[in-house]
Every structure is written in structure tokens, then in C-alpha cells.
Design brief:
2 copies of one chain form a homodimer.
Chain A: H1 2-21, H2 32-41, H3 44-59, H4 88-111, H5 113-118, H6 120-141, H7 151-162, H8 164-201, H9 212-216, H10 221-232, H11 237-247, H12 252-305, E1 319-320, H13 321-330, H14 335-347, E2 352-353, H15 355-361, E3 369-371, H16 382-392, H17 394-418, H18 429-453, H19 455-460, H20 462-485, H21 502-516, H22 525-540, H23 542-563, H24 573-585, H25 595-607, H26 609-618, H27 621-633, H28 639-677, E4 685-687, H29 690-693, H30 703-711
Antiparallel strand pairs in A: 1-2, 3-4
Helix pairs in contact in A: 1-2, 1-12, 1-13, 3-4, 3-7, 4-6, 6-7, 7-23, 8-10, 8-12, 8-23, 12-28, 12-30, 16-18, 17-18, 17-21, 18-20, 20-21, 22-28, 23-26, 23-28, 27-28
Chain lengths: 720, 720
């Protein structure tokens, strides 16, 4: 009947508006039961369960067989890691697998059969699940003793396919690949030509004393290529040229030319190209997000205008305010936006809304969220008012900063004085007394500020929340210290009692005080700008970070598979042989006496299959690159390891860092421009996303484009 | 009389137009004799003498007392460098000094007394000359035995003040300093807070086995600061965290946080800021160049319009074409521009030129120089025409590339096969025969191309010039080889004869063949784009390179003064003590057995005063940074060296590299945009400068601005 139809239309409108808010595609089924399923699937609970499943399946690697969640990384000291019995991780995997099967079925059903065949991501998802199940069955039939587990490499795919932002970013990266490949090709040509030059230049001579360069770095083609590749990463920079340079200064020209062309020009050109290409694609993807939003709102308008209550005689299609109010009440959206839209709907006295008016109402969604702080309390007493004026003044905050600085300086002085003292000679009295005084001041400051601003206003500033939280933690720590060790007095150096020693307590307090000093940041204008840029960047970087996690995970698992058993703990003959080779070929580290020890450690750290996963997952790429270069400079590694590490260097150092620089440049330049435009508005905090950053340059889609797209909708039949 | 006046006006116009062409300021004296002096001063001969003087005075450092222009850099092997007798370099200096005195007097006279006091560069010039003379007198009175020669540090100033582009660039860099200082301050805060954290975290414990981290890296405040500063440059990257990491994996969080915040965020933020700031200033300086050009042309128009022959009754001021022709003939300018202006002057039939027409005539100066290749010869014979078609076709060039590639591959195969052979086992027959064949092909290719294109057209392409030159050199080398060693035959391995051994000759030929392979570049589209970008960059980079030379020179001289006598050759007790300290404190290099040897070499290389100048001047900064970091990681260096090297790192690595990246980004993005706009025009080569790059965004100065500026001219009294 008409009532059921109307209900369906209302439900459709609700879902379309929710799609618009979340920048989702509207190309899904729109019958009643599908809409229910769609809203259920995108409900918070369901999405939360899905995220949890992905986290669990990724985290499994930390407890699975070659894991190393031990405190120390040193094989000589550490206890064997806990090995879960066969079947435990497998049953968790099965549970996750079932969730993914439900996920993929619901997704496939919702977009419909025709769309399914066009969606490569969904097909890949199903394929991945099939391979996963097969490998799981194989694993169980071998009682978990199988040598290769390919399903582990597949796991990051689940993370990738669940985030539309990550898919979009991946698409952007994919589009810049041709240009990157051109520069990489150029780099390869550069490298190979210079390798040939080097081999001709540093050829073997009759005098064995004279060809040190040849012996160490340019013995054959793979050696020369490696030497120059490592020079490209500047890891072996002065070393590689020193034998030749010491023979004749002119040889340095070769190395200088190579470095200038390769490092200064080609590498930076890569940055320029990635910046140039990526900038365009980021804008494009934001533009398509905007289109999705406008389309969702337009679709909601169209279905609402087909409601039976609308006067059919009207020339233009329009929507009654009542219907819209009904939709708004049921739709899930940010309460601030909802209220703003309701308010403007009430202010607009008209009964019927045209398409343009409808679209305009929802522009609230695109606006920056402006955060307003609650007002200060109004005290009746004249005395209290004066106190409020004094302690609410910025100067009181500056005084607090000065006191914090004084505290830092006093800690620093004590540290410098105590630097070389034996722990038994140390006297904690001075620092204890001073910190006690400072923490009391911090407490007083916090209380006075709360008095002046009122608790609500105080807590509405993030700097105050940071400040207050740290002050309370410091207070608790100080009280605990006094409760266990008594009040400070000269020679205050009691023995170990309770959970932490006094010295550890004092150190912890000092660290927190140093950390608390960061409260000065918002007071320094340029610093505040930089820090907000960085925070924005972190927000916009989530998709990048996700892709990085995917890459890390895949590399870590590959590393485990490649280097499994390459290094075994001390005492084993194979390892000793390995170590002797290492000593012969690689450079010694640290002081001469512990050289074999440190090489061993490095090898143990980098080559042991059991360790690679936690190493790679806890060590950020900047760290890893240099380890890799370090490892590359040790000549003993096998060819596979070389290829693995070169790939890792290219992806994590060259490409990822350049993408990061591009994003940072983009963010900073936009931010800086806006900052220069409105320096005066200081009390307003904007919450900005990548969509909002580009708003000035985005193009609004035209009505024709929207309607054309709507008519192409696979499931929605519009009346007109 | 009127004739003399007219001559003066014509001369003024000539000088103003020359000023406009060279982007010079027109604020100089304009009376007859001053104009003569001005043209003399800016004549090629005078400017060439000035440049030569600057080169000579800068090059003096290479032969002055602590110089090291020896073949080897190793103090153990090298002969003592030639020491010029006292008075030789001093008399050369006096000559240069006299040239500079003439230079500064002429410059000061020409801009006039009033302007002189406003010009800080001129004042600094005079001051520098006074200090220079004083130091020179001191030096002579000590018979060249004085310990400190401050005048050496002053020398690069002469280079700086002579180039207006360098002064402009320096001004731009200067303007970005506040923002850079902010980020550097942020870096300093970051560093000091983390240092305090580190000192609290890695404090001395009672167990001596447990505090390796404290012993090696965080013993006291300077040590900790150095460790983290070096970590910021990623030179000690995995090493610094390994003792702590091996104790507890969680310690790595500290180092990861430090690296991510410092290296990934703050350092790249510096790039973003420099790019953002510098972009604006570069544009601004180009804008002011444009203004100078327009002003010069306008000034020429104004003086020409005051000529007596002009009808005084005309309402608008205007210039007769005759006067302009007279001026053009006498003015020194690019002949292409001159002809183009003459041509348009003749095409314009009018007798009198208005200001706008006058300005428009000179727009030719702003245009890209379009290089046109001369036509191919037209042969009468049908057979020759067919040959011309065949060998002038691009496919013939591609065939040449394929042959060159084949040659490269054959060399590469021989190199791989011969890599491990003893020199006595080597047989040069195969390579000799193959190269002989290939070189004949190259010769044939060159001759056929010349036949098809004609010599003029052939030489008008730079790729052909490159190709032909290398082919001729190869041919000469090959003929010389055959003349000395006879034709190749199996077992072709004669003993050393003549200037070079056969093996060296073959190697040289191979290197040239590898070098010749670069001719493929223009055939690959993207490579060609990249290479032209790089070449453009090199053109625009001259000012940067000049400033870099200034910085290098100053650092090298300071280094000589600071580290003079810090290292003395082997056998001396002081040096042995030094070496023992080095061995104890620093990490050994290369293989274990030659560790003390290599440390010695490093120390000898970097710390010896006699060597610093040539080291710094011949080694590009990318090289030096890593040496510096390397040296920093050796803990024995004194405090002065530390400060010196940190300053060097900041200036040459952080600031200069970022400036370079900014310039490259700017260049590439502009180039890329233009490249995308007109991909079809492939035969036209543009010669582009930094001025032309920005032309689309430059604003033309208005008539009012120009006239206001003209009326402020200190020496020129306009009639109206």
C-alpha cells in the first residue's frame, strides 16, 4: 500500500543520507529487507566486530610458532617463547574466517549480482578466503608441522579491503607507479653504467698492494653493484672511496659524480615526481568523495519527493519538511550537525523544499566543527571575582611555564652533577625535596585555575586536561613515595622497598615532569602551528599507516620464511661457522675488544627467523633501513637476503618516505596559507580532515551529473 | 649645444637599454664621462679581468703554505708539497688587491655619494679591503711566519659581492632564516627533552653488566647530546639502541619515538618550510628583475623623447624611429634579439613610437630563444636522395643505439668473465677485435649521418656533436693502439710500450664506449625530460653553487686554522698517543686485522690541517657530511671540532640540501606542467632561465610605478 511505500521511501532516504555522511557509494540494494541488512551491517557493533576480527587475525603472528614476544632480544639470555598447542591458533583462525565469510556474503548480496562481477576487490576477497581455507586444512592435516604457511602473507589483505580510504590511497599510489618506475629505471641505468665504469677503473693490477679498492669493493659484478647501491644509500660513504682516494685524489671525482647524480639529483627528483603526481591524485580522490556525498543527498531528495503526500501537481519536484524531519530523526549522524540542520529547517518557514534548498541544508556537514568553550562561572563575591581575574589571566599560565622550566633546569643540574656518581654515593634528598615543592605548586596552580575557570571550562581545553592529568599522577606518585620511604631528609637513600626502588620512583617522577613541560607548546605560536600540522598529518596519515602495516606484515612474514633457521643460538657448530665467515668479511663494530661479540649480536638480531617478525613490526622503517644497509655492507648474506633487503629499502625508504614528504608538504603549505589568512581567530579550534583541507579548490558536481549517475543506479527506479 | 645634448641622450639611452638587458639597476651617474666609465667598467674585458682576479685570489689557497696538492692523500706515502717562497703569493695578493681597489672606487663613484651610504655591500667591501690590507702588512712584517691569517677567510667575500644573482639569492636565504630558526629551535627542544629522558632512562645501575647503554652512549650530558644528535643524522642508527634493546625490547620505543619525531617529522617539516618560503622569495626576486628591465627600457624612452628633434607640440611624449635605430646599432646585445627588434621596427610603418609601442618592441628580450636547425642538403641524384631518406630516418639512429647497447653488453660479459683473472692470464684479443669492429661501425654511422643531414645540420644537434666527438676520439685511440701494439690476434697481450699499456688503452676505450652510450637519453621521452630538468637546474643553480663555494671555502680555511697540527705523520710520539686513544674509543673499520690501520687513515684524512682544504674543496658536501658524522661517532674529538662539525652539518646538509630540494621541486613542477601542455612540439629547443620559468605568474609593472621610480632617480633629471 501507500503507507508501506512511504515507509520504504523514508527508509531509503535515511540510508542515502547516512551514505552521504560516510562518503559511501549508494549503489546497493534498496528494498526493505536489504535496507535493514545494510543498516545492520554498517552499524557500530558489526563494524566493531569486523575490526576486532581483523586485529585478532593479524595479532596471531605474535603468538604463533616462530614468535618472539620475550623481554630480551638476545638469544643467549632469553627463555624460549611460549608455543601454543596445535589447534589453538587454528580454531581462532576458523572463527575469524567465519566472520569474514559472513562479511563477504553480506557485501556481495548488498551490491547485487551485476555489480559483484565489476568489483575486483570483492573477487580478490573471495579468492583470498578460498586460499586461506585450503592452507588451513593443509596445516591441520599436517598437525601444524608443515614448513610453509602461505596464509600468513594473505592476512594483511583483510585489513586492506576493509578500509575504503586505504583502497583509495592504494589507487593513488598505483597511479604514480609509472612515473616512479621511470625514475627507478633511470636510477638502474645510472647504477649499471657507473658499475661498468668502476669495474674498468678499479681493475685488478699486477701490484697486489695497489688494488685494495678492487679486493674490497669491486671484485666482480655483484660486488661492484652492491658497493654502488650501498653508496646510493650513503651507508658506506667514505669507506668505499678511501683505498682509491689514498692512491690518487682524482679517483674521488668518480665517487663524487656518482653521489651527486644519484643521491642529490635522481633521489630528489623522485621526491619531486611523487609530490607532483600524488598531489593531483589526492585532490581527485577527495573530489570523488564530495561527489558521493552530493549524490547521496540528491538520492535522498529524489526518493522523498516520490512520497505520496507530495502534491503531484507541483511542477518542480519537492520535499515536505515533515518528511525530512522524520528522516533526520531516524538517521544516525553527528548530533551537532543534526541540531544545526533541524534549526535551519525550522528557521526556513516554507513547507516544501526544492532540490537546491535541500542540498543547502546539508552543507552543514561540510563545515568545520567549531569548538566553543563553556563560559567561566560568575562569582557573587567581589573577592572571588578578583581572584578569578588574576588566575584566569594568561600571565598566570606563563608563570606556570616559568616554574616548569625552573623544575626542568633543576633536574638537569642534578643529572649533570650525579652523572658519574656510583649508585651507592647518590643522595636523593635534594631532588626529592625540590620535586615535592614543585609538585605542590603544580597542584595549587591546577586548583586555582579550576577555581577561576570552573571545572567544565578548565576541562574543555586539551592543554589543561594534559596538565591536570599529569599533576594528579605526579601527586599520587609523590604520596606513594612518602608513604613507602618517608619524607626526604639529607642522606635519603633507603634500600629497595615495595614495587619500585626510591631511585626508580624519583626517576619516574622526573620523567613525568619533563613530559609535562610540553604544556608550553600552545603558548609558542610557531610551535603550535607546527604541532597542529603534525597532528593533522597524523589524522590524514591513517590510510598511509594502514598500508605501511600491510607492507610491514608481508615483509616480516616473508623474512621469517626466508631466514628461518639461518641463525641458531650459540654453541651450535653451524652458527660458529657462520660467525667466522662474518668476522672475516664484515667490519667490526664498537671497540676492538668486543668486535666478535657485536657482530654476533647484529647477525643474531637481523637474521634469526624467530625474531624478524617482532623486529620488523616494532621497529619503524627509519630504523630498519639503516639496519638493512648495515647488513648489506656485511658481505656474507646470501643472494635472497640481498634481493629481500633491496626490495625493502626501495619500498620502505625510497617510496614510502617520499610519499610521506609529499603529504607533509601538501599539508603544511595548505595549513600555512590558511594560518596567514586568519591569524587573529585564536580561540577557535578547527577539526580538519583531508576533505576540508581541499575545500577551496574542489568543484561542486552539477545537477546533470548527479541525475545521470542516479539514473544509472542498478537498484533504484526513479519515477521520473 | 643641442648636438652635444643629443649625443648625451643617445648615450644615456644606450646605457639604459644595456642595463635593461642585464637586469642592472639604472641608479648610476648619467653624465657623459661617467657613462663612458660605466660602459668601460661593464665591458667584457673589464668584467673578465675582475673574474680572473677573483679566481686567482681564491685559488691561492691551493699553493699557500698548508696546502696539499699532492697525488696521494696518505701522509705516509706522499712527498712534501711545494712551498712557495715568502713574498710570491703576497705579491700576487697585492696585484689582486689593487684590482679590487679600482673596482670598489669605480663602483662607488658611479653610484654617487648619496647612494654609496645606503649601499651596505659597498661599505662591507671597503671594510674587507681595509682588513685585508692590514693583515697583509702584518704578514709581511712577520716574514710570512705569522700563525693566523684572517684574510684568507675574507677571500670568498670578493666572489660574493661581484654577483648580483648571488646577492639576491643570499637575500632570499636570509629572509627564510626566521622560519628555519623556528624549526631549528624546535629541533633543539626535541633534542634536549629527549636527552633528559635518555639520561633518566639509561642511568647508571648497580649491576655493571646491565648498564652498557650508559657506559657507551649516555655517560654524561655532552655524551648523551652527541649520541642523540648523531642519531638525528641516522649515522649511529642501530648501534645506539642495541645494548638497551638487548636488555629489554621496550627500550626501542624511546629510539623509535625520537627518530620518527626528529627525522621523519621535524626534518621533513624543514623541507616543507624552506620550500614554502623560498618559493615566494624566488618569485619576488624574479619580479624585481622584471621591474628593473622595464624601468631601464622606460628610462631609455624618456631620455630619447627629450631629444631636440622631437616635435615639442605633441601631446604624448614619443620617440623617433631614427633615434632608436641609432641607439640599437650602438647598444651591445644578443644579435638575434637585435635583428628581431630591427625587423619589427621596420615592419611598423609609423615614424614616432609611443611609450607602449617602445616597450612592446623590447618584449623580444623576454622571449624564449627558439633554436632552428639548418635544413638538410638537397641532392640532385636520385640514389643519394634515397640514401638520405634511409640514413636520415630516426630508425637509423635507433639501430645505432642497439649497436651501442650490444657493445656495452659485450664489454660487460668480458668484464664478468675476466673479473677474477690475474692480469697475466688476461687475453685482450676478444675485446680488441670486438671494439675494433664496433668503432668502425660508429665511424660509418657518423659519416652516413653527415651525408644524409649535411655537416651543418649534423653539428646543430648537441647529441650528434657528443656522438661525433666521442667517435673521433675512439678512432684516434684505436689507431694509436694499433700503431703501438699491432693488430689484435689470439694471445694479444704485449708488454708495456709507449705512454699507456695495452690494457690501459683497452680500458680507456671501453670507458669511452660506456660514456658514449649516454646518447640514448634523448630517445627516451621521460629520460629526456628528466635530463633537461637537471640541465635547467644546473643553470639556475649557479648562484647557489657560488654561495656553496663561499661556505666551503670559509669552512675549509676555518678547519685548517682549528686543526692545524692536530695530526702529525707516523713515528711521532704525539701521534701514536692520539692513535691509541682513537683505538680505545672508536669503532674499528674494515676487516678486523687492519682495524688500527684504517682508523689511522680516517684520522689522518679528516684531522690533518694540511689536508682539510683540498679535502673540503674537492669533496662535495654529500660526501663530507657522512665523514663528519663518522668523525662525530668517534668520541675522541675535542669540543671545538664538535662545534665545527655540527655547524657544518647544519649548513651543508640540513639547510643546503633542503634549499636544493626546494629548487628542484619548483623547477620540476613548472617544467612538468609545461611539458604536459605542449607535448607535440618536439623539434623546438627552448633555452630557459629562472626568469622565463616564472613568466606566466609575473606581474607587469604599471606606468605609474615606473614613472615614480624614474623621478626618484638620483642623477637623472627628466624634463617633465
Amino acid at each position: 500500500g501507500a503507507g508501506a511505500d512511504n515507509d520504504l521511501y523514508i527508509n531509503q532516504a535515511i540510508v542515502f543520507i547516512e551514505d552521504a555522511i560516510q562518503y559511501r557509494s549508494i549503489n546497493h540494494r534498496v528494498d526493505s529487507s536489504s535496507l535493514w541488512l545494510y543498516r545492520w551491517y554498517y552499524s557500530r557493533t558489526c563494524q566493531w566486530i569486523l575490526s576486532l576480527t581483523i586485529t585478532v587475525i593479524l595479532a596471531l603472528a605474535f603468538i604463533e610458532e616462530p614468535s618472539s614476544l620475550t623481554v630480551t632480544s638476545d638469544v643467549r639470555y632469553r627463555l624460549p617463547a611460549w608455543n601454543p598447542p596445535c589447534g589453538l591458533t587454528e580454531s581462532i583462525e576458523l572463527l575469524c574466517f567465519l566472520v569474514f565469510v559472513v562479511d563477504v556474503s553480506v557485501k556481495s548480496y548488498l551490491i547485487g549480482w551485476k555489480e559483484f562481477w565489476k568489483n575486483k576487490w570483492l573477487m580478490a576477497y573471495i579468492l583470498t578466503l578460498i586460499v586461506y581455507l585450503t592452507d588451513w586444512i593443509v596445516s591441520l592435516s599436517f598437525f601444524c608441522k608443515e614448513s610453509v604457511r602461505i596464509r600468513r602473507i594473505l592476512r594483511p589483505f583483510f585489513l586492506l579491503q576493509n578500509s575504503s580510504m586505504m583502497k583509495k590511497t592504494l589507487k593513488s599510489i598505483n597511479s604514480t607507479l609509472p612515473e616512479m618506475a621511470s625514475v627507478l629505471l633511470l636510477l638502474a641505468v645510472h647504477l649499471s653504467l657507473f658499475t661498468m665504469f668502476a669495474m674498468l677503473l678499479f681493475a685488478r693490477t699486477k701490484d697486489n698492494q695497489q688494488d685494495k679498492e678492487w679486493v674490497v669493493y669491486f671484485r666482480n659484478l655483484p660486488d661492484s653493484l652492491t658497493s654502488l647501491l650501498v653508496l646510493l644509500t650513503t651507508a658506506n660513504n667514505p669507506d668505499v672511496m678511501i683505498p682509491a682516494y689514498s692512491k690518487n685524489r682524482a679517483y674521488s671525482i668518480f665517487f663524487i659524480l656518482f653521489t651527486v647524480l644519484g643521491n642529490l639529483f635522481l633521489m630528489n627528483l623522485l621526491t619531486a615526481i611523487i609530490y607532483n603526481q600524488f598531489r593531483g591524485y589526492l585532490l581527485k580522490s577527495v573530489q570523488s568523495s564530495l561527489f558521493r556525498r552530493r549524490l547521496g543527498i540528491r538520492a535522498a531528495f529524489e526518493v522523498l519527493s516520490s512520497l505520496k503526500e507530495t502534491p503531484a501537481s507541483a511542477q518542480q519536484s519537492c520535499v515536505s519538511t515533515g518528511a525530512l524531519l522524520q528522516v533526520l530523526q531516524k538517521a544516525e549522524m553527528d548530533s551537532r550537525c543534526k541540531q544545526a540542520i533541524m534549526r535551519s529547517l525550522k528557521m526556513c518557514s516554507c513547507d516544501q523544499l526544492s532540490a537546491a534548498q535541500f542540498q543547502k541544508l546539508f552543507e552543514e556537514l561540510d563545515k568545520d566543527a567549531i569548538k566553543q568553550h563553556p563560559p567561566s562561572p560568575e562569582y557573587p563575591s567581589h573577592y572571588l571575582q578578583k581572584m578569578q581575574l588574576a588566575f584566569g589571566h594568561p600571565y598566570f599560565g606563563y608563570l606556570g611555564n616559568v616554574v616548569a622550566l625552573a623544575n626542568i633546569i633543576s633536574i638537569c643540574v642534578v643529572l649533570v652533577m650525579d652523572a658519574d656518581k656510583q649508585p651507592s654515593e647518590r643522595d636523593d634528598f635534594f631532588l626529592g625535596a625540590i620535586n615535592c615543592f614543585f609538585i605542590l605548586y603544580y597542584l595549587l596552580e591546577m586548583l586555582l585555575k579550576i577555581l577561576a575557570m570552573g571545572l567544565k571550562r578548565y576541562l574543555s581545553y586539551s592543554s589543561n586536561r594534559f596538565d591536570g592529568l599529569l599533576t594528579i599522577i605526579l601527586l599520587i606518585l609523590e604520596i606513594a613515595t612518602f608513604a613507602v620511604y618517608g619524607f626526604p631528609h639529607p642522606g635519603w637513600r633507603p634500600e629497595f622497598m615495595g614495587l619500585l626502588s626510591l631511585w626508580d620512583m624519583v626517576r619516574l617522577v622526573n620523567m613525568l615532569i619533563v613530559f609535562r613541560f610540553l604544556r608550553i607548546i600552545p603558548n609558542m605560536k610557531f610551535m603550535a602551528l607546527v604541532v597542529t600540522t603534525l597532528l593533522d598529518l597524523v589524522k590524514n596519515l591513517r590510510a598511509f599507516a594502514g598500508i605501511l602495516v600491510v607492507v610491514f606484515y608481508a615483509f616480516a612474514i616473508t623474512g621469517i620464511m626466508l631466514f628461518k633457521g639461518a641463525v641458531v643460538p650459540l654453541g651450535n657448530t653451524r652458527y660458529s661457522n657462520f660467525l667466522q665467515g662474518a668476522q672475516k668479511n664484515s667490519r667490526a663494530e664498537f671497540t676492538g675488544s668486543c668486535a666478535p661479540f657485536s657482530i654476533k649480536k647484529v647477525v643474531v638480531l637481523y637474521f634469526k627467523g624467530k625474531n624478524t617478525i617482532s623486529w620488523c613490526s616494532t621497529h619503524f622503517q627509519a630504523e630498519v633501513i639503516y639496519c638493512v644497509l648495515y647488513v648489506l655492507s656485511i658481505h656474507l648474506i646470501c643472494r635472497w637476503a640481498k634481493i629481500y633487503f633491496v626490495a625493502w629499502w626501495l619500498i620502505s625508504s625510497v617510496i614510502w618516505v617520499n610519499l610521506f614528504v609529499a603529504l607533509l608538504l601538501e599539508n603544511f603549505i595548505h595549513k600555512w596559507d590558511r594560518h596567514c589568512q586568519r591569524e587573529s581567530l585564536s580561540d577557535i579550534e578547527y577539526q580538519r580532515t583531508v576533505e576540508l583541507m581541499f575545500r577551496d579548490v574542489l568543484e561542486e558536481p552539477t545537477e546533470e551529473e548527479l541525475m545521470e549517475k542516479l539514473h544509472q543506479h542498478p537498484h533504484l527506479q526513479l519515477c521520473r
